[in-house]
Amino acid sequence: MSKIIIVTESRELSNTALIELKNKAPHTIGYLRTAVRDRLPIIEAFLFYNDHQEISTKLKAIVQTLDMYKIPFSIYELGEENEYTASIDNEIDKIDTETLVNILDSHNPSE
The whole model's pTM is what? Predict the structure, then answer.
């Protein structure tokens, strides 16, 4: 199984962008502010379980929101047991948006 982490590259977001993300991510605005400032994940999602369709939709909505507000971000695909740490070089785990969508869609045959 895989775990997807999305981290913003910006250290500050507009209130409008934070509200949009709050509507899509499972966190409060306070947590999102802290996550953005401290380069923590704005979402950490496990793939390929029974809720894969729901998680897939949520991840795509978050990526779309970040793109809409032109917020730079990074996506990481980690093993289920691995943890994301901002202080560690995670470049090897980095994937692009197209790869994420391909991974998500490969398990959503109806899309």
Answer: 0.87
